[in-house]
Amino acid sequence: MNTDKHQLLNRLKTIEGHVRGVQRMVEDDAYCVDIIKQTQAIQRALDKFNSLILAGHLNGCVTTAIRGEDPQERERVVSELLQVFETTSNL
């Protein structure tokens, strides 16, 4: 397994652990603000995870498509990225 994939999987396992911790907090009727602080930390961790995935995609697939000879592939990759960000901004 390459280092990047290993790091991503470790991040996901950490996030999973934090989600389980929040679940326990809810089960134990923890203070609401404390729960919100934890879910915000989880969101930041997911945002960082997504940034790492995006960086890999931009440095790999997107760069290859843009440098390639197929204009349809370039358009497809750009359109795909735009769709992801449009979906994200609509949440």
Automatic annotation (TrEMBL):
GO biological process terms on file: negative regulation of DNA-templated transcription
CDD domains from the UniProt entry: TthCsoR-like_DUF156 (cd10151)
Gene Ontology MF term list: DNA binding; metal ion binding
Pfam families documented for this protein: Trns_repr_metal (PF02583)
InterPro entries: Metal_Tscrpt_repr, Metal_Tscrpt_repr_sf
PANTHER family associated with the record: COPPER-SENSING TRANSCRIPTIONAL REPRESSOR RICR, TRANSCRIPTIONAL REPRESSOR FRMR-RELATED
Protein name per its UniProtKB record: Transcriptional regulator
Species name: Kouleothrix aurantiaca
